[in-house]
């Protein structure tokens, strides 16, 4: 078998066999196939895409390329969740304890943020003492004891994905739906969960800018999961504005705590309850989403969800009181310049503004300032008066003119009223 023949076959739009995909993945991981040939195949996939069968074979081989976490020692159906990334997205901090409070085990591997999107591990590291690296024994014991653990991803998980992503990043093939789907699902499947709920973001702050793109990605990932014997559901949600009000690590943790106490922003609570409801159904506690929703709403109201969060944080060494000290030195208000209604938000631009403050990374390895960030006080459709505060910048330097300029360019105000949209667009199942 030759790699050039595989490239030729996919270039001409034919379906690759399992053996051909296995040859390509194993050869690349073992460094027997050069980057330039894999780049050519990635571009062929970009233009010709992949069938459901090909995608399943690709993900299966990617998972096999490294460690696969064995969670069979954890009692019950293990349900994981994944977000495709957004601004102000602190759902894992809420959904995990919420689902765990209903008795469903949540064994989650999370990553760090890059660019305009934040990472769950970065947010958790805002809490002094929180331990993001757990041994397999510690991880499994904690999930059995308190029903939830969140740890950083192991360096030996899906090496094929790390290699392919690095290559896609420099060959203009990042936006390929099959390659995005295989990247996400290979990591989720290697993490050992029995069932997965995917939060697929769409809009100005998401990787998928249109509903058609988001739907195609959601359907591809659900198909992959189901074909490899994992119950999988995808929730397509809006990222046309930041989720909740807070952007920035410690600020987002505080907003997550408010939400776990039943006092959070409406959009954030609604999305978290929706995702968590599908997780509870997949976990086998109840068989109807609306019943699960009411059950979880009661967990917010009676304090069970927040208490589970506190137990989870303390078990991993975190000191929640330390959040009180994670405050930026300067707080600078950005005011609306005209009266009207908030019509458009450049969510990615707001995320990039937070990154400029130090809340995110331009490149992997860049340091994070957990105390800085942005509060967005208004939502799409809100009526605004001139000089209303729309943003508050939380910074550790007093010169933030470039951030102010970016924020002033990140929204539009118009005279006519604007109908507010819901946070959840649709749910994709097999």
From TrEMBL:
PROSITE patterns: THYMID_PHOSPHORYLASE. It comes from the Bacteria. SMART domains: PYNP_C. Keywords: Glycosyltransferase, Transferase. Gene3D superfamilies: Nucleoside phosphorylase/phosphoribosyltransferase catalytic domain (3.40.1030.10), Pyrimidine nucleoside phosphorylase-like, C-terminal domain (3.90.1170.30), Transferase, Pyrimidine Nucleoside Phosphorylase, Chain C (1.20.970.10). GO terms for cellular component: cytosol. It is an enzyme of class 2 (transferase). Its cofactor is K(+). InterPro entries: Glycosyl_Trfase_fam3, Glycosyl_Trfase_fam3_N_dom, Glycosyl_Trfase_fam3_N_dom_sf, Nuc_phospho_transferase, PYNP-like_C_sf, PYNP_C, Pyrmidine_PPas_bac/euk, Pyrmidine_PPase_CS. Its EC number is 2.4.2.2. It catalyses: 2'-deoxyuridine + phosphate = 2-deoxy-alpha-D-ribose 1-phosphate + uracil; uridine + phosphate = alpha-D-ribose 1-phosphate + uracil; thymidine + phosphate = 2-deoxy-alpha-D-ribose 1-phosphate + thymine. One of its GO terms (molecular function) is thymidine phosphorylase activity. One of its GO terms (biological process) is pyrimidine nucleoside metabolic process. Residues 341-414 form the Pyrimidine nucleoside phosphorylase C-terminal domain. Homodimer. Catalyzes phosphorolysis of the pyrimidine nucleosides uridine, thymidine and 2'-deoxyuridine with the formation of the corresponding pyrimidine base and ribose-1-phosphate. PANTHER family: THYMIDINE PHOSPHORYLASE. Belongs to the thymidine/pyrimidine-nucleoside phosphorylase family. This is Pyrimidine-nucleoside phosphorylase. The lineage of its organism: Bacteria, Bacillati, Bacillota, Bacilli, Bacillales.
